[in-house]
Amino acid sequence: MSIPLSGPDITRKEIAYVNSVLTKSGGILSIGPWLEKFEDAFRTFTGRKYAVAVNSGTSALFLLANAVGWKDGDRIVTSPYSFIASANTPLFVGAVPKFVDIDLKTYNMDIEKAGRAALSEDVKGIIAVDVFGHPLNISAIKRKLKGKPITIIEDSCEALGSEFNGRKCGTLALAGTYAFYPNKQITTGEGGIIVTDNKKIYEYCISARSQGRAITGLWLEHERLGYNFRMSELNAALGVAQMERLDEILEKRNRAAGRYYELLRGTRGITLPHISPDVNFMSWFVFVVRISKYDNEFAEFKEYDIIPNNKRNKFGKLLRKTNNLRSSLLNELLNKGIGCKPYFTPIHLQKFYKRMFGYKIGDFPVTEYVGSGTLAIPFFTNITLKQQKQVAKIIRDFFN
Ligand SMILES: Cc1ncc(COP(=O)(O)O)c(C=O)c1O
Question: Which residue positions does N6-(pyridoxal phosphate)lysine occur at (predicted)?
Fold first, then answer.
């Protein structure tokens, strides 16, 4: 029986709400009550004053980069181990990402390195990514800034519902974003949202998402450069149903993750996701296992910020060896009908980043080592114990 990598959890409620947009809204398919309800749900859930829904998480990040005034020449500290949109965000507005390496356990930016990088003169901001839903310790980074005013925005696109030291991801900085592609905790088909307490950011985002219209102005009056990043009523209605079921969804995902820990614990050759003690609640986006068979060999390289030239060959070999083992596991799973994917390829090694900035292997050792060995296995809200047993058995047999 084949098992998909991910998939949305759609019930009768979602179908009824979307249906009602089509049949009972009097043709209001955009800019209507469902959008307001969806934004309301986010204000309530996050406790933030403002929420602006848009057509993707990328649009949400793009609007925020504009809203906070990042521009040509600015450098923005962020992670090279993320979905590409977080690193692209500075580029959208002429700024440049300043990558810092990650932590081998959480896969989030290394706190020391992020703090140090943020103190460089040209750094104007930080995009704090909660990778795979694991909260980044933003307060710890802030403590490293020695009072330097830096704009931090939180990319919590993978972390809806995660909580760190009693606070929800997405509310730990000036503004936060969530995303709703169908593999996310909740989906709107496509979609994203910005949450903030900052009125200026809110007013800019509301206007810019809809062609730069004034909030209270006429339809064909435009007071700034704007875009069409609106979320339709169909998407918003789907989102409202999902938000009403959020607790149930997160709880089911939590249980599913727990079952993987039970089933895979002790498997030689892989490491399961690490959850820091300060995490009060982990909202599971994906379940990523990492090839850790060669961690002893990696120890030699861990101390370097950048791998020295005379060690690059050896380091490259280690990456290839790890990657090869992951590929074999990946193929084993795929051949048996199990959906899985390498997650993530380091952003600085993506073709266009290498072309634009000249990055090469060895520039961010932890990211590259983690990126050569991480693998997302099937994970979705209604995955069954039977399916998880099937996945776990293949993985365990592979390493035995
Ligand atoms: C960390 C992160 N940032 C941004 C995005 C962008 O969201 P979207 O795909 O909705 O544009 C995603 C989506 O996968 C993400 O995982």
Answer: 184
